[in-house]
Amino acid sequence: MDRRTGEVKICGSQRRDSRLRRPGALTDQVREIIERKIVAGEIPAGQKLNANALAKAIGVSRSPVREALRALEQAELVQAIPNRGVFVRAVDLAEAIDLYDIRIGLARQAGRLLAARVTDEQLGTLDLLYRDMERARASGDADAYHRTNLVFHTRLMEYAGNRALAALDERIKKQLRLFLRKGISGPGQLRMSNADHRALLDAIAAGDAEAAANAYERHSITGKQRMLDTLSRSGAMDSLASRGPRPAGRRSASR
After folding, report:
1. With 90 as the cut, is the pLDDT of residue 202 above it?
2. Listed range (42-46, 167-171, 245-249) with the worst mean pLDDT
3. Which helix (H) or strand (E) covers residue 15, if one does?
4. Which of helix, strand or coil describes residue 253?
5. Alpha carbon of 242 to those of 91, 92, 113, 182: distances in Å?
6. For the domain with range 7-88, which CATH number is right: 3.30.565.10, 3.20.20.140, 3.20.20.70, 1.10.10.10?
7. H or E segment at 224?
8. Cβ(66)–Cβ(54) below 8 Å
9. pTM of the prediction?
């Protein structure tokens, strides 16, 4: 890294990375870079992470990389296997189901909090995101729908006003991205998904805590079921259930 310009050499090319120039601990900035690559799938599940190579690619010493990897292990995005090294963690089917179930519970509580706490300005932002998703759905742009959907759900958790709940949901969401990189994107599925969003927003706008809790819970349950149905139809269940190294003590995919 050039201390003067903030340019970072990654994979043999120069590019400016403002993350390394803003205030804050260097370890946190390095962790954000590695985490982003893991969640985006640029570093796939099961791949070994070499601290020396990462340090050279990012343009820092090995020390912040090692600290960053320890933080990512605590976040359960990587795992250290004795005598083998550090790997991007693979989430199997059984664990993904468990994670979905936790998110369902978080969604119900978030719906209740949103109905009580959301402001008119926040509700307007959510409505704009809903309309963006509806346009993407109508045009058949599943990628745009998926990107906006991620922002929409992040805002929902943020506007619920409980930082611990939002942080836990974000952590689980990142782990689920290790299991399934993209959302379910069939036309009928997108239509049902956004209809759920409309019902949730209507309940929040009405200040009906129970209806909002039910709507968000139902949306999360149907999202989980759509995932399972799609994997079952594609025949991907078995391969997803057994891929990649798993930490000691994790259950197998058989339930």
Report:
1. yes
2. 245-249
3. strand 13-16
4. coil
5. 9, 6, 38, 19
6. 1.10.10.10
7. helix 209-234
8. no
9. 0.75
